[in-house]
């Protein structure tokens, strides 16, 4: 509080006011705006905690008047220029997010109405200086809503509110003096990538200014803006930072688009801007709920741009801002304003200011194409309630995630994000069929697939190539991405996949709107384009696999620790240090090929050899001189050639006194790269050189700098050559993401027994036999329809059929009750007891429908999904105090949405509607909505405890527009009712509320009181016995239990939302301590030994397995198996499948398939093993482990299928025979069974 006294002293000029100005500061409570009305004040002052909050009003009114007059007469300079109202609101919102206690004092000092939040006039009055304040202020005026980082020496620093942001969101400590009253923060230069990544992820835009050489006079530095990084257009850094385990600290992440919202008499308009394709889309005529669904589906970067038409509607603006704050993926959900009578052009202008500020400052033209969104029959995005009930929202509230159930947890981050976006924005029907075609082929193809690298986002590709801020690591990542995609495009086995997904990605990415990109939708066109890109890259850049091993150049080349035995040994040690020098300065050899700049490379080679020759010549001379004088008795006096990793220079070191000359040349001290003689740190002070040696060193270093510059120019030129191929690179990136996501999904869910549904075309109303609804190519995936209630019946093709439907989060090993669902254009009234599974059934139906609309597999044995235009799942939710809405108000908004948005093609699933108010009113709400939806023809399920609905909706049942369904109950031997979790015909009036209360551990006496009061209520109501409505009409439901396990186990697994078990993988784990077999004498190369071992494996399996078993195994995958020959007509050899070093196991064989295999490591070593989880076992062999030095990437595998109960026998038998044939194996631990049974035993 001492600064209050300083400020008062500065303001008061009359001597009779000095005493009052120096009054104890505890008696002052300074308002952040002014000391009193009409008085000029430091805007940065805010209320401070005091023990006695005595206001200025407690002082004499005459004194206050004279104080005002004195301040006005002094004509103090005004505070720094104020920000606009919108900019002030921006920083005010940010200050509300500064919540760390240690920042509270500094938070009270800053003022969001001034740039940087600092009042410079006040700071001058209290003798506080802000380093580079004028430069900070200049940048802040140009970028008023961005974080400003300025390089000062070896640190980046921020001041004012920006410093508080770094302390809050990046976890930095404030710097400077304790009582400086100037928030400051900074960090070392090498931490910039990580902090930029964090700030962008939190929703901040960052401006980075760097030093650009010293100004005239040499005392200060010139500075310039290096780049601007925003959430919608982040800056990428290469190489990416990694932790000690090699895990990237900056994982690849998709960049969300920038959104804009405008309002008109036709409804709301949503604008979307993607940086990679330079396309802005415009979708008009949206309702508020439709807008929120679209925003949640596409995602968005902050700030969200709101047209002034939104700001004029205060209530609408508040609802949009509230939605953004609830659903944004970052803590800071900011908005900005764009204006203009033409909202389209206003959005484009504002986007250019936010995303292309650097281009505009440089005077470059930014061309953005505005594309109206077509109504292509795409289903509407799921509403927020549906998203939350399927575990797809920001806070899943304990609900199992549908994304994880699809295999999202095992997908790369980019593939997981794409799958999530697909569920939130289901594709058009024809695009869903393309995805389904790809998934079906993954499920049926048994050929090994190329191993994809999902490492580059389209945004990163575009930004890196167009910015020309290039590093060789980017081209290596680009090569890793392109090569497997080209292999996919050239694979005949997976051609149906790439044909379908190339069309899908071309349309979904927006590239298809440009006529010159149409060729990318064909396999041949995309293959040709990517081959051209690969040739361009490989012609310039160096393949790191072609470069030999290197020495560790991260340490200094120090003197030998002991006396060397000879001059030759000393020279050998010195050459190692010279090698470190060479690798540190000749990094261009790892970037571009030498033939691209042969003249410069020859110059580097020539100058290095000259430098090496003169260095070793001087080293030999010094060695001989010290040897003559007897100074080589200990190692500390011997000369050597050093390497300094900081300056990347080498010098001949000679501790002690130097000889006067060598061959007539005077010996001098060597100089470092900065030409500062005789360094006083490290070992350079003991250096020795001649003028010729120093000249050779300078020439070599100059040649390496020239080569590095030339290499950079070549990489920039390569970027220019790749610019016309950006569309093909975006396609490759999209294809890799989608193919990896679908392959993982198909592999996992096929093993779990899921099926691909039949997708009905839109507006189909014909009548077809139910048993003929299977597609022949997918019959093996979907199963057969043999339920008695469907046999011989007919059903509308618009009906949804789900056979053996189970909760999506339960695996086959879990005990789950499955249900058969046939649901047409009518209403189901689903009643049932508490904990009977009503919500689980609704959630399962919603999940299966959404997955089918997305072209994915569903948790059933057979499914038929109509072309729903929307899936609405509504469950009971609490209130929203932030919005001032009760739980019933939220229910009514959901009811309004279901009424206004649903059509005859909609699926509406309502759970506990009307629960937020009293029983009669809630019953009326449900009855009214059910009647409206039944008349409309929507496919609807109402799950409810409101039993009066049974009588109210009886007319709908009589008209055939509604069916009564219930969750079944049964009595245990003790006479207690328990749920069966089966859907069946009829009505259930039991609630089992008191049973649930007892099971939850409630006090028995309290439960007894509940039963007592319930009996009194029933007696007062005097309700006559209810007559269950006749539901003899077709129910469309049959129930089946998928397991014989007990009811308690079933109940635990079904309703807990957890998955207690998983598919059993390996039947036996490899011994971690297997000894490596001794090398044996053998003839032939490694490939011949490998082929011989595989042949022995086939013979072993064929001899042990019976012909019937072997034949059955071959028939299972005979459709596309690799060719194999039989050694005997009586006992044919089983087929062999091969997975190359850059391939992945085919989905049908990845899990739950018993095999015996031969692994060939990259070094040629062989290993024999067995497993029932082939993909996991191959991943283990390809992982680098210290205890298995031969393992690592590049391992290939050949495997033969075999019965699970004979895997151990076959592994031991094959290992024995391979060893007896003289073929070395890396492990013989499993060679434990000397004799084994044959097929005759």
From TrEMBL:
Bias type Low complexity, positions: 779-799, 1118-1129
Bias type Polar residues, positions: 1030-1043
Keyword line: ATP-binding, DNA damage, DNA-binding, Nucleotide-binding
The UniProt record lists the keyword Transmembrane helix: no
Domain DNA mismatch repair proteins mutS family, chain residue ranges per copy: 906-922
Superkingdom of this protein's organism: Eukaryota
Annotated segments matching region Disordered: 768-799, 1023-1087, 1114-1136
Key word Calcium present: no
Entry protein name: Muts domain V-domain-containing protein
Upper classification of the organism: Eukaryota, Viridiplantae, Chlorophyta, core chlorophytes, Chlorophyceae
